Amino acid sequence: MAPPPEPHVSPETAPSPTSGDDRPTAPGPAEKGGDAEGKEPARQIEELARQLAALTETMRREHERAAHREQVIDRLHAENQQLRHGIVQEVLAPVRTALYRLHDTVTRVAARWASDDPPSAELAGPLLAAMADEVAEVLGRTGAERVSVRPGDPYDAALHRPTGTSPVDAGADGTVVEVLADGFVAGDRVLRKASVIVGRADSEAKPDAAKDDAEQVVQDDADGVDGSDDRGGPESRKNGGPDGSGGEDQTARGEDRDGDTDGDTDGGELGGSETGEEPTGPGAESGTEPGTGPGTEPGTQRGKERESE
Protein backbone atom coordinates (compact mmCIF):
# COMPACT_ATOMS: atom_id res chain seq x y z
CA MET A 1 0.00 0.00 0.00
CA ALA A 2 1.43 3.36 -1.03
CA PRO A 3 2.10 6.08 1.59
CA PRO A 4 -0.16 9.31 1.54
CA PRO A 5 1.22 12.35 -0.20
CA GLU A 6 2.74 15.08 1.91
CA PRO A 7 0.76 18.36 2.14
CA HIS A 8 2.12 21.17 0.02
CA VAL A 9 2.49 24.50 1.82
CA SER A 10 2.97 27.68 -0.19
CA PRO A 11 5.32 30.40 1.01
CA GLU A 12 2.41 32.86 1.40
CA THR A 13 0.58 30.58 3.84
CA ALA A 14 3.63 29.42 5.69
CA PRO A 15 3.69 30.62 9.33
CA SER A 16 6.29 33.22 10.12
CA PRO A 17 9.09 31.98 12.22
CA THR A 18 9.05 32.99 15.85
CA SER A 19 11.75 33.35 18.32
CA GLY A 20 12.24 31.02 21.07
CA ASP A 21 10.10 33.09 23.51
CA ASP A 22 7.18 33.32 21.03
CA ARG A 23 7.32 37.23 20.93
CA PRO A 24 6.25 39.05 17.74
CA THR A 25 8.92 40.48 15.58
CA ALA A 26 9.59 44.28 15.31
CA PRO A 27 7.29 46.28 12.98
CA GLY A 28 8.46 47.24 9.57
CA PRO A 29 9.24 50.74 8.22
CA ALA A 30 5.61 51.37 7.15
CA GLU A 31 4.30 50.88 10.67
CA LYS A 32 6.86 53.37 12.14
CA GLY A 33 5.76 56.19 9.72
CA GLY A 34 2.11 55.92 10.74
CA ASP A 35 2.87 56.29 14.47
CA ALA A 36 4.91 59.50 13.88
CA GLU A 37 2.08 61.11 11.90
CA GLY A 38 -0.41 60.40 14.70
CA LYS A 39 1.73 62.04 17.42
CA GLU A 40 2.36 65.36 15.52
CA PRO A 41 -1.16 66.90 16.03
CA ALA A 42 -0.98 66.08 19.70
CA ARG A 43 2.27 68.00 20.07
CA GLN A 44 0.77 71.02 18.22
CA ILE A 45 -2.25 71.04 20.50
CA GLU A 46 -0.02 70.95 23.56
CA GLU A 47 2.01 73.89 22.18
CA LEU A 48 -1.12 75.96 21.49
CA ALA A 49 -2.43 75.27 24.98
CA ARG A 50 0.87 76.40 26.50
CA GLN A 51 0.85 79.65 24.49
CA LEU A 52 -2.79 80.34 25.38
CA ALA A 53 -2.03 79.92 29.07
CA ALA A 54 0.90 82.36 28.79
CA LEU A 55 -1.29 84.90 27.02
CA THR A 56 -3.98 84.60 29.66
CA GLU A 57 -1.43 85.21 32.39
CA THR A 58 -0.10 88.27 30.58
CA MET A 59 -3.60 89.72 30.20
CA ARG A 60 -4.33 89.16 33.87
CA ARG A 61 -1.20 91.02 34.90
CA GLU A 62 -2.01 93.92 32.52
CA HIS A 63 -5.53 94.12 33.90
CA GLU A 64 -4.17 94.35 37.45
CA ARG A 65 -1.78 97.11 36.39
CA ALA A 66 -4.60 99.08 34.68
CA ALA A 67 -6.78 98.81 37.76
CA HIS A 68 -3.89 100.09 39.89
CA ARG A 69 -3.37 103.04 37.53
CA GLU A 70 -7.08 103.91 37.73
CA GLN A 71 -6.89 103.93 41.50
CA VAL A 72 -3.86 106.22 41.41
CA ILE A 73 -5.60 108.60 39.00
CA ASP A 74 -8.72 108.75 41.17
CA ARG A 75 -6.65 109.47 44.26
CA LEU A 76 -4.67 112.23 42.50
CA HIS A 77 -7.89 113.80 41.19
CA ALA A 78 -9.39 113.87 44.68
CA GLU A 79 -6.22 115.43 46.09
CA ASN A 80 -6.20 118.01 43.28
CA GLN A 81 -9.79 118.98 44.04
CA GLN A 82 -8.97 119.40 47.70
CA LEU A 83 -5.94 121.54 46.90
CA ARG A 84 -7.91 123.72 44.52
CA HIS A 85 -10.67 124.21 47.05
CA GLY A 86 -8.11 125.11 49.69
CA ILE A 87 -6.38 127.60 47.38
CA VAL A 88 -9.68 129.25 46.45
CA GLN A 89 -10.64 129.56 50.09
CA GLU A 90 -7.23 130.99 50.90
CA VAL A 91 -7.56 133.58 48.12
CA LEU A 92 -11.10 134.52 49.14
CA ALA A 93 -10.25 134.93 52.82
CA PRO A 94 -8.91 138.53 52.54
CA VAL A 95 -11.70 139.42 50.14
CA ARG A 96 -14.27 138.26 52.65
CA THR A 97 -12.58 140.27 55.37
CA ALA A 98 -12.70 143.46 53.29
CA LEU A 99 -16.31 142.83 52.30
CA TYR A 100 -17.23 142.30 55.95
CA ARG A 101 -15.75 145.71 56.76
CA LEU A 102 -17.52 147.36 53.84
CA HIS A 103 -20.80 145.75 54.85
CA ASP A 104 -20.46 147.07 58.40
CA THR A 105 -19.65 150.58 57.14
CA VAL A 106 -22.64 150.67 54.79
CA THR A 107 -24.91 149.35 57.53
CA ARG A 108 -23.82 152.05 59.99
CA VAL A 109 -24.19 154.82 57.42
CA ALA A 110 -27.65 153.58 56.42
CA ALA A 111 -28.70 153.60 60.08
CA ARG A 112 -27.41 157.17 60.51
CA TRP A 113 -29.28 158.41 57.44
CA ALA A 114 -32.46 156.68 58.57
CA SER A 115 -32.30 158.25 62.07
CA ASP A 116 -34.22 161.34 63.19
CA ASP A 117 -31.07 163.44 62.88
CA PRO A 118 -29.46 162.41 59.55
CA PRO A 119 -26.05 163.82 58.62
CA SER A 120 -25.64 166.71 56.22
CA ALA A 121 -26.09 166.06 52.52
CA GLU A 122 -22.62 167.45 51.92
CA LEU A 123 -21.17 164.30 53.46
CA ALA A 124 -22.72 162.05 50.83
CA GLY A 125 -20.06 162.75 48.20
CA PRO A 126 -17.01 161.99 50.39
CA LEU A 127 -18.79 158.96 51.83
CA LEU A 128 -19.49 157.44 48.40
CA ALA A 129 -15.92 158.17 47.32
CA ALA A 130 -14.61 156.35 50.40
CA MET A 131 -16.82 153.36 49.59
CA ALA A 132 -15.49 153.31 46.02
CA ASP A 133 -11.93 153.29 47.38
CA GLU A 134 -12.84 150.40 49.68
CA VAL A 135 -14.24 148.40 46.76
CA ALA A 136 -11.09 149.15 44.72
CA GLU A 137 -9.01 147.83 47.62
CA VAL A 138 -11.06 144.63 47.67
CA LEU A 139 -10.53 144.20 43.93
CA GLY A 140 -6.82 144.82 44.42
CA ARG A 141 -6.65 141.83 46.77
CA THR A 142 -7.94 139.66 43.95
CA GLY A 143 -5.22 140.94 41.60
CA ALA A 144 -7.24 143.64 39.82
CA GLU A 145 -5.45 146.96 40.25
CA ARG A 146 -7.26 150.22 39.49
CA VAL A 147 -5.79 152.47 36.80
CA SER A 148 -6.03 156.11 37.81
CA VAL A 149 -6.93 158.45 34.94
CA ARG A 150 -7.20 162.21 35.36
CA PRO A 151 -8.48 164.93 33.01
CA GLY A 152 -5.63 166.25 30.94
CA ASP A 153 -3.81 162.92 30.60
CA PRO A 154 -2.90 161.93 27.02
CA TYR A 155 -5.25 159.47 25.42
CA ASP A 156 -3.87 155.91 25.42
CA ALA A 157 -5.72 153.41 23.22
CA ALA A 158 -4.28 150.50 25.23
CA LEU A 159 -5.79 151.73 28.51
CA HIS A 160 -8.63 154.04 27.50
CA ARG A 161 -11.93 153.40 25.76
CA PRO A 162 -13.35 156.57 24.16
CA THR A 163 -17.08 156.98 24.67
CA GLY A 164 -17.34 160.43 23.06
CA THR A 165 -15.49 163.60 22.06
CA SER A 166 -15.60 167.19 23.24
CA PRO A 167 -14.36 170.32 21.41
CA VAL A 168 -11.22 171.79 22.99
CA ASP A 169 -8.39 174.11 22.09
CA ALA A 170 -5.63 172.92 19.79
CA GLY A 171 -3.25 172.54 22.73
CA ALA A 172 -5.57 170.05 24.50
CA ASP A 173 -6.26 167.98 21.40
CA GLY A 174 -6.02 164.24 22.09
CA THR A 175 -6.25 164.51 25.88
CA VAL A 176 -8.76 163.14 28.36
CA VAL A 177 -11.48 165.67 29.12
CA GLU A 178 -13.64 163.62 31.48
CA VAL A 179 -13.35 160.20 33.16
CA LEU A 180 -16.57 158.19 33.21
CA ALA A 181 -15.24 154.90 34.65
CA ASP A 182 -11.87 153.70 35.94
CA GLY A 183 -9.96 150.85 34.35
CA PHE A 184 -8.40 147.77 35.95
CA VAL A 185 -5.33 145.73 35.09
CA ALA A 186 -3.76 142.50 36.37
CA GLY A 187 -0.03 142.76 35.82
CA ASP A 188 0.51 143.35 32.09
CA ARG A 189 -3.01 142.25 31.17
CA VAL A 190 -5.78 144.83 30.85
CA LEU A 191 -8.95 143.57 32.52
CA ARG A 192 -11.07 146.62 31.68
CA LYS A 193 -10.27 149.87 29.90
CA ALA A 194 -11.16 153.22 31.42
CA SER A 195 -14.12 154.97 29.79
CA VAL A 196 -13.18 158.56 28.92
CA ILE A 197 -14.25 161.59 26.89
CA VAL A 198 -11.49 162.63 24.48
CA GLY A 199 -10.87 166.24 23.49
CA ARG A 200 -10.79 167.20 19.83
CA ALA A 201 -9.71 170.52 18.33
CA ASP A 202 -12.40 172.88 17.00
CA SER A 203 -11.26 172.29 13.42
CA GLU A 204 -12.10 168.61 13.77
CA ALA A 205 -15.47 169.43 15.28
CA LYS A 206 -16.66 171.31 12.16
CA PRO A 207 -18.77 168.42 10.82
CA ASP A 208 -21.00 168.68 13.89
CA ALA A 209 -21.36 172.45 13.40
CA ALA A 210 -22.14 171.96 9.72
CA LYS A 211 -24.77 169.43 10.70
CA ASP A 212 -26.35 171.93 13.08
CA ASP A 213 -26.34 174.61 10.37
CA ALA A 214 -27.98 172.22 7.93
CA GLU A 215 -30.68 171.38 10.47
CA GLN A 216 -31.28 175.11 11.04
CA VAL A 217 -31.60 175.72 7.30
CA VAL A 218 -34.11 172.91 7.01
CA GLN A 219 -36.09 174.36 9.90
CA ASP A 220 -36.00 177.84 8.35
CA ASP A 221 -37.23 176.47 5.04
CA ALA A 222 -40.07 174.68 6.79
CA ASP A 223 -41.09 177.88 8.61
CA GLY A 224 -40.77 180.09 5.45
CA VAL A 225 -38.42 182.59 7.09
CA ASP A 226 -36.79 183.87 3.89
CA GLY A 227 -40.17 184.32 2.10
CA SER A 228 -38.57 183.66 -1.31
CA ASP A 229 -40.52 180.53 -2.16
CA ASP A 230 -44.11 180.14 -3.28
CA ARG A 231 -45.29 178.34 -0.13
CA GLY A 232 -46.61 181.40 1.65
CA GLY A 233 -43.70 183.82 2.10
CA PRO A 234 -44.49 187.53 2.52
CA GLU A 235 -43.16 188.47 -0.90
CA SER A 236 -44.95 185.66 -2.69
CA ARG A 237 -48.23 186.47 -1.01
CA LYS A 238 -47.92 190.17 -1.80
CA ASN A 239 -46.20 190.40 -5.17
CA GLY A 240 -46.05 186.81 -6.39
CA GLY A 241 -42.24 186.57 -6.21
CA PRO A 242 -39.07 188.48 -5.35
CA ASP A 243 -39.25 190.65 -8.49
CA GLY A 244 -43.00 191.25 -8.25
CA SER A 245 -43.56 190.00 -11.79
CA GLY A 246 -46.05 187.39 -10.75
CA GLY A 247 -48.25 189.93 -8.92
CA GLU A 248 -49.67 191.46 -12.07
CA ASP A 249 -50.61 188.07 -13.45
CA GLN A 250 -52.35 187.12 -10.22
CA THR A 251 -54.19 190.49 -10.17
CA ALA A 252 -55.25 190.09 -13.78
CA ARG A 253 -56.49 186.55 -13.13
CA GLY A 254 -58.42 187.79 -10.09
CA GLU A 255 -59.99 190.59 -12.08
CA ASP A 256 -60.90 188.15 -14.82
CA ARG A 257 -62.74 185.99 -12.34
CA ASP A 258 -64.45 188.98 -10.71
CA GLY A 259 -65.34 190.76 -13.93
CA ASP A 260 -66.82 187.93 -16.00
CA THR A 261 -70.39 189.28 -15.68
CA ASP A 262 -69.47 192.91 -16.27
CA GLY A 263 -67.35 191.98 -19.23
CA ASP A 264 -70.26 190.29 -20.93
CA THR A 265 -72.54 193.33 -20.52
CA ASP A 266 -70.03 196.02 -21.29
CA GLY A 267 -68.54 194.20 -24.21
CA GLY A 268 -71.97 193.90 -25.77
CA GLU A 269 -72.79 197.55 -25.34
CA LEU A 270 -69.44 198.81 -26.56
CA GLY A 271 -69.30 196.32 -29.38
CA GLY A 272 -72.60 197.58 -30.85
CA SER A 273 -74.69 194.49 -30.16
CA GLU A 274 -77.77 196.66 -29.53
CA THR A 275 -77.36 198.93 -32.59
CA GLY A 276 -76.97 196.10 -35.06
CA GLU A 277 -73.29 196.75 -35.77
CA GLU A 278 -70.77 193.95 -35.86
CA PRO A 279 -68.92 193.51 -32.56
CA THR A 280 -65.38 194.73 -32.58
CA GLY A 281 -62.32 193.97 -30.46
CA PRO A 282 -60.36 190.80 -29.75
CA GLY A 283 -63.55 188.94 -29.07
CA ALA A 284 -64.74 189.42 -32.63
CA GLU A 285 -61.48 188.21 -34.14
CA SER A 286 -61.34 185.02 -32.07
CA GLY A 287 -64.92 184.15 -32.80
CA THR A 288 -65.88 183.93 -29.14
CA GLU A 289 -68.59 185.63 -27.27
CA PRO A 290 -67.80 189.10 -25.98
CA GLY A 291 -66.50 189.14 -22.43
CA THR A 292 -65.21 185.52 -22.46
CA GLY A 293 -61.95 183.85 -23.41
CA PRO A 294 -59.30 186.09 -24.88
CA GLY A 295 -61.70 189.06 -25.02
CA THR A 296 -62.28 189.04 -21.28
CA GLU A 297 -59.45 191.39 -20.37
CA PRO A 298 -60.41 194.23 -22.81
CA GLY A 299 -64.03 193.95 -21.80
CA THR A 300 -63.05 194.14 -18.16
CA GLN A 301 -60.92 197.22 -18.77
CA ARG A 302 -63.77 198.97 -20.63
CA GLY A 303 -66.16 198.04 -17.81
CA LYS A 304 -63.82 199.59 -15.29
CA GLU A 305 -63.48 202.77 -17.34
CA ARG A 306 -67.24 203.07 -17.59
CA GLU A 307 -67.65 202.53 -13.85
CA SER A 308 -65.01 205.18 -13.14
CA GLU A 309 -66.85 207.67 -15.44
The major sheet is characterized as:
3 strands, antiparallel
Low-confidence residue ranges: 205-215, 217-252, 254-299
Number of strands: 6
As a percent range, the share of strand residues is 5-15%
Overall SS class: mainly alpha
- Total number of helical segments? 8
Q: Biggest sheet, strands in spatial order?
A: 1-4-5
Number of domains: 3
Helix content: 55-70%
Biased composition (Low complexity): 278-289
Biased composition (Acidic residues): 218-227, 257-267
Biased composition (Basic and acidic residues): 32-43, 202-214, 228-240
Region (Disordered): 1-43, 150-171, 202-309
Task: Give a brief outline of the structure.
The protein contains eight helices and six strands. With 309 residues, it is mostly helical.
How would you describe this structure to a colleague?
It is built from 8 helices and 6 strands, in the order ααββββββαααααα. With 309 residues, the protein is mostly helical. It has 3 domains: 46-108 and 126-142; 144-205, Roll (Nucleotide Exchange Factor Grpe, Chain A, domain 2); 234-308, no CATH class. Helix 1 (29-114) packs antiparallel against helix 2 (124-141). Residues 205-215, 217-252 and 254-299 have low confidence and may be disordered.
